[in-house]
Amino acid sequence: MNTEKYSSRRKLFRVLGPILLMIAAYLVITSIGEFFSLSHFEQPKKFHYFFIAMPFFLVGAALTNFGYMRSVADYTAREMAPVAKDTVNYLLKETKPGVESLSSALRGESSKITCPKCQEQNDDDSKFCNSCGTKLALVCTSCNEVNKPDAKFCDQCGNRL
Ligand SMILES: [Zn+2]
Ligand SMILES: [Zn+2]
């Protein structure tokens, strides 16, 4: 194989690929921009740009991929793998409490307990106020479940508190 010819072709692909991708992006942005600026009864005139953009995008992506393939593969192996691993770990670690607090927020629960006496915000598993020591939770005498301080009955076993 003629490596010089091969590398000059790669150089061409490296230029051509991103140009095609930019054309595709321009076409998509134009058609979407028009789409959102239209009033309800107007017919979109540039909507077909979106479909014209598709072959540009596919060819551009293929050329870019081919032109940068080796360097991207090297870069990926050297730089991206540890970053990707860290990112995934970070996301896994960060997402869980985030999802939990989001879901409790969606259920309309606060993850904090407001002290009835001094209005201090305490963690929802606190039994006594951080600030004034007021009792924040009722522990069920029957099953030891921790209930809200204003609960009348245990939410675990129904025992009168
Ligand atoms: Zn308090
Ligand atoms: Zn109970």
What this model shows, in words?
It is a single chain. With 161 residues, the chain is mainly alpha-helical. It folds into 2 domains: 3-107, no CATH class; 111-161, no CATH class. It is 58% helix and 6% strand. The protein has a two-stranded antiparallel ribbon with strand order 1-2. The chain has a two-stranded antiparallel sheet with strand order 3-4. β1 (112-114) and β2 (121-123) form a beta hairpin. α1 (3-37) packs across α2 (49-106). The chain is elongated, with a radius of gyration of 30 Å. The mean pLDDT is 79. One zinc ion is lined by residues 115, 117-118, 120, 129, 131-132, 134.
Whole-number mean pLDDT: 79
Total count of strands: 4
Q: Any idea what the shape is?
A: elongated
Quickly give the structural class. mainly alpha
Task: Quote the beta fraction.
Answer: 5-15%
Biggest sheet details: 2 strands, antiparallel
Largest beta sheet: strand ordering: 1-2
Poorly predicted parts: none
The Cα radius of gyration reads 30 Å
What small molecules does the structure contain?
Answer: zinc ion
Distance between the termini: 85 Å
Write the layout of secondary structure elements.
Elements lengths: L2 H35 L11 H58 L5 E3 L6 E3 L14 E2 L6 E2 L14
Helix pairs in contact: 1-2
Bound molecules: zinc ion (ZN) (2 copies).
